Amino acid sequence: IYFFFNAGLLELSLGKFRNVLLNQTNSVEAVIRNVASNVTVVVFQAHAQQNNVVISFDKNPSVNSSGTGVDKGLVSILRPQQSICTWYLRSLDANQVLSTAISIPYMEKDPIPGGCNLEFDLEVDPNIYLDYSLVDIHIKFAPANLGYARGANPPSCDSGTGQNSRWRLRYDVYQYFLPENDLSEMVLMNHIRKMSEVHSIKANGIKMLTLTTDDKTNVYFSSLPGQGVIYNVIVWDPLWNTSAAYIPVHTYACSFADLVDNCSSVSKLSTKIFFTVLAVLGLFTCFFGHRFWKTGLFFMGFIFTGFFFFVFITRVTGLGYDVRLILTAVAGIIGGLLLVANWWRFGSVLLCMLIIGLVLGFLFSSVIFFTPLGDYRVFRDDVVFWVTFSCVALMIPVLFFGCPRILNILACGIVGSYSVVLAIACYVYTSLAYITLDLLRRILNDYFSRAYTNVPFQTNDFIILAVWAMVALSGITVQLRRERSEVPFPPHPYLLWKRERERRSTNVLDPSHHIPPLRERIHNKLLQIKEVFQKEQPAGERTPLLL
């Protein structure tokens, strides 16, 4: 790593990164010399982690000749005989800011990133503009133009849509994840180099989609607060088989400057308390949920009621997050207690098994859509997504309807152990939390279906996945071994119904014994309804008098 301070001069070589410390008072002049004659365009870019950097063609920057941001670049269109390029850099922060800079050359047949810009300030704008929220990340960029020789006029951006125009260009959008739980500047500087040039982007990035010129040049991704992500776009000319890269842009989907809920601690205190308590109950349920039937039932009822109540109050009210979480906890407790208090009724046994199956089914379906399958274009349609999701979720209670004990033990082991994963995610970043979080985002946000939900899967995730699998298998094994010699419980709903029918038919002291069968009761009810619509018969004699 080299830092250049002498007279504010930074000597660059084409394709070589140089780190530099910038400040607010003195501009740094970046110079590249001896540019080859076959180079027609040089793309210069500078990157910092969190403080804005100003790069410009002139020492006194103007709106149309400069860019400001943490990831910014400029395109220098070279004149005939030109062999030297100069740019100026400075920071907007009073303190020194570490940044890295590089200049990348392109030839006559290479497309020019942002060469057909009509939206942003720069005439040729190779930058990717990024906005983020807690839900999604939005990137957009200006269309590219075809390459051309030094001194020639640039191809028109609007003269036809044939193969001789910019409309033949294709845009490949790439994503790259920084190491999890590492927010250091040097890590970003080292990894952003892998996403700056075409060959390194293809080697290290994940290709998410390809856009044609007919598509809008903006893309949405799911937000991952606290996780560093780099995005870039490669524009490809299929006629000449040449490519060029835009300016890579990075985000952590959080603020380094906030005192509370910053990038170092993205989980709120209320979230940590809620999921820690839930994990304790879930861990108990994982190993003892079937033996302590009411405790396991309360756990499932709490999750089921709390989930739908949180969705409801978020949709219809403007309450703050902490208030909603407290109300969700209260609603979950009430729902769990009601389920425990009424489970022994025949109808409630069916309801209990349905709720247990749905909780496990929803988690299973969420895991399926957490895989790359969830990013298939067909599932961007909400109708297709929710019908498919519901069918997969309903498979679990349908398949295990005849085996309630197995269903309950599996649900206790898998769902209970996953609550431990959610608690871990409150303290250490793990992508496994987004198995259910992305489902919640899709329910609560009407436009989340347009976002790509790819997440990193790194060392932490493999470790936590192994812990989840180990805890779940241990809990299921312990409960199956304990219950294998016990009477099946809960009882099969059909057997319970059959036993209840036989009891009522033999026990004459049971008031329900004197209740007519269901078919007879329905028939009597229909007769009563029919009598309402019959005309009233006139009073008096209706037969002829006998003479």
Q: What is the structure about, briefly put?
A:
The protein has 12 helices and 18 strands. It is an alpha+beta fold and 547 residues long. It has 2 domains: 9-153 and 165-251, no CATH class; 269-483, no CATH class.
3D structure, described in words:
- One of its GO terms (cellular component) is plasma membrane.
- Residues 276-480 form the TM7S3/TM198-like domain.
- The chain has 547 residues and is an alpha+beta fold.
- It has two domains: 9-153 and 165-251, no CATH class; 269-483, no CATH class.
- 39% of the residues lie in helices and 19% in strands.
- It has twelve helices and 18 strands.
- It has helices at 185-192, 198-204, 269-288, 293-316, 321-342, 346-370, 382-399, 404-425, 434-444, 459-483, 493-506, 518-532; strands at residues 9-12, 18-22, 28-32, 39-48, 53-56, 66-69, 71-77, 85-91, 97-107, 128-132, 136-141, 170-177, 206-212, 218-222, 229-237, 242-245, 249-251, 451-452.
- The strands form four sheets. It has a five-stranded mixed β-sheet, with no helix packed on it. Strands 12, 13, 15, 16 and 17 form a five-stranded antiparallel β-sheet that branches.
- Helix 6 packs across helix 7 (382-399) and helix 8 (404-425) runs antiparallel to helix 10 (459-483).
- The radius of gyration is 33 Å and the shape is elongated.
- The N and C termini lie far apart (131 Å).
- The relative contact order is 0.09.
